[in-house]
Every structure is written in structure tokens, then in C-alpha cells.
Amino acid sequence: MTVSTRRGLLYSGLAALAAVGLTLTVVLASLGEKVGGGTDTTPPGDLSTASSSTSTAPTAETTMAGGLVDLLVISGHSVIDSEFRVDFVLSYSGDYWFKDPRGMAAFDASTLTLQSSSELGDVIVQGVSPAGPDFDHAHLSYVRADTMAWSIEVLTSGLGTPTEYLGEHETLWVAQSLGDSPGAEVTVIADSETGLPLLVSEAGEHGSTWEMTYNGTALVPKTTFDLGIRPEGADHRRDMGFRLVGLESLDASAGYLVPLPKWLPPGFEVSSVAFAEAPITGVSIYNPPSEKVAVVTYRNGLRALTVTTRLATEEYLYEPTGEKLAWTDPYCTWPPCSATLSVSTAGTEFLVSAGPYQPTHAWGLLNGLIVTVGGDVSIADLEAILASM
User: Do residues 166 and 6 lie in contact, with contact meaning Cβ atoms separated by under 8 Å?
Assistant: First the structure.
């Protein structure tokens, strides 16, 4: 990618910002169309009284101050292979809102409710696990939330080394070690004064491309992400079984002592605690049925870390083949899956895996429980987390 090409990417991003008047209010209002069965697609949150500007970056003070974490919203759009466009809004509480050519989807982390609308109808799924491995929030892959989180962390912490200055305020970073494959190149163009990424692009070694443009950030009143779909009016509905509980009552709900880390990377705080007696979960596709599942999610801005525990039930007879299944990696949806390394701590061996197509995570058997720890952290931090449990 030449300097002139990079400049073109930068200023196409800036032109997009100028076209929306540098405000989230206009950006979101432009997405308020009708799709599917006539669902109200007005984007989440009333931004009419919110302050919003591309000059407001998610600084450390903003993202780590307890009251503001829940209120910070970031919007933008991504384009995959120059054709498939996805508009999005993400909150630092784990909520999200998406619109693509096929329809819309919204997840409200405060109620564990996922709503979607398309030509196939309106769907509402309640009791959704706030994070993997029990539920695949596939929409987040459209915006490559892991790369977005990385870019914000690097640009606001001063960890990144700029490779080039493009203008008075714009700076270019290039990394070779991110993406779906070792050959991918990730380019970040950011405002060097605010730390706000303006454009993140990824070029895969096989010719695939992905570009994400930030429209800006805003501090807004805490509201739910809601498409207006109600269970009684949905064409399809399902309950996955999870419910939010208090951290102080989690052991009582689970009926066992839930092992949690005593050390976390700086900035991570408890975001949500959920429990299900016998959830509907993708983990059970290649494993025995999950029972008494606890999910504790920690967040630091867009970065998330999730600890799950469940009873280590006996081998399970898989009726279609007659096989007896023992436990395998709960994150593994396409076996066989291989571990990157193993970590021994407290007499337990955890198997660690890192991408592509899955978060950095570890799993193992601890005190009669199947335990997973996964999210937007390095393997070194993951090892330290495991050692503290």
C-alpha cells in the first residue's frame, strides 16, 4: 500500500465524517429505515441531547471511570471485500446494534436479549449468554471487534510506534501480526491528538479485504438497544436460559464455589454475571449437556474477558453415532481443534488456544468443573490470570 493510497483511505474516511456533520445523531438517524416485517429500526439511544464529536476519543480516563463506561457509544461502518457494508453502534457495556443488507440485529446486555429483523421475519432470543463460548455473537465478527479493541488500546496508551505522519493530526500505524492469518496486514489511521482511530483496514494474504471507519464517539444516557420487537409479536422466539445474577449470589445460584481470577490486566472490571441451570448452548454440540453454567464477563472499553464454569458431567452418549463423548474445548465448534500450549497451575492443566476465528482462551478441569477463560488478552496475561485462580 503506497503513501498516496493510504492518504486516499484517510481522506475518504474524513470525507465520510464531514458528510454526517461530525455528529452521531445524524449518522444514526440516517439508518432509521424499515426492514423485515416493519420493525422500527431507529438506532438505540436518544442522542438528541448527547454531546458527540469525532474529537472525543475513548481515553483512559473515559473508558475506565466507573460511571462513564456504561455510557460510551461508538459508531461506524465496515466494508468486507469492497461490497458487503455493515453499519454498527457498540457500547462499552457490551450492547451492539447492526444493520447490513440482509437486515438488522441488536443485543441488550442489560436484559440478555437479542433481537433481529430480516425478510425471514422478526426474531427475539432471550436469556442469551453475554459472551462465548455459550453463544456466538457472530455480528461482532463483521466489525472485527478484536482489532478495533486493539487499535484503541494501542492508540490511547502510547504503546504503538507511528510509522508515518500523514498530516497535521493524522498518523499511520501498520502491524503485521494481526488478522485472520499470519500473512495479514492491519493498517490503522488515527487522529494523533485524540487517539481516535479514523480507519482500520486489513488485507488478507489471499486477497480478502476488510475496512472499518469510525464515525465518532458519544457519551449518552444509558438506554437499551431495542428494535421494538416483543415476544408476543415475534415470528420466532427462543429462550437460551441465562439470567443475570449478582456476583455476591453467584455461588448460591450455582451450588458450588465459582473459581474466579484474583488478578486481571489493568482496567478490566466486572461487567455482567449470568447463570443458567441447563442452557441451550453451542458448547453441547460436541460435549456432554451443560449444567449449572456461570458466566462472568469483565470489560475494559471494547475489550472483553469472560470466565465460564459448568459441572464436569460424565461421558455422554451421542445418539446419532452411538459414540461416548468426553469433554473437548468448549470454544471448538469445528473439530478437530488443537491447543497452542498447556499451562499447569494449582495442579490443573489448562489447554491454551489462540485464533484464528476464535478468541485467545484456555480451558481445563478444575475442582470438578469445566472452566474456560477467554477474550481480548495476550497469552502472557492469560497465563497470569490462570495462575491467580
Answer: yes
Residue with cell 507511528: 162
- Distance CA(212)–CA(140), nearest Å, equals 12
Give the E-state strand segments of 110-203 in sequence order.
Answer: 113-118, 121-126, 164-165, 170-175, 185-191, 197-203
pTM exceeds 0.90 for this model: no
- Residue 298: exposure state from Cβ atoms within 10 A (0-12, 13-18, ≥19): buried
Report the 10 Å Cβ neighbour count for 61.
9
Residues 357, 332: Cα–Cα separation, whole Å: 10
Range 208-221 burial, b when 16+ CB lie within 10 A, else e = eebbbbbbbbbebe
CA–CA separation, 175 and 340 (whole Å): 22
Total residues found in the chain within this entry: 389
Cα→Cα distances 343→162, 212, 274, 377, 384, Å = 35, 35, 27, 16, 10
Residue with C-alpha cell 440516517? 30
Quote the distance between the C-alpha of residue 344 and its chain's center: 28
Tens digits of per-residue pLDDT, 100-150?
A: 999 999 999 989 999 999 999 999 999 999 998 999 888 887 776 666 666
291-301 tens-digit pLDDT: 999 999 999 88
Instruction: Say if residue 32's pLDDT is above 60.
Output: no
Of 307, 224, 213, nearest in space to 264 by CA: 307
As given in the structure block, the three cell numbers for residue 262 are 484474583
H or E segment and range at residue 217:
strand 209-219
For residues 387 and 53, give the distance between their C-alpha atoms in angstroms, rounded to a whole number: 42
Do 270 and 296 touch, CB atoms closer than 8 A?
yes
CA separation for the pair 181, 35 (Å, rounded): 35
DSSP code string of 60-106: HHHHHSHHHHTTEEEEEEEEETTTEEEEEEEETTS-EEEEETTEEEE
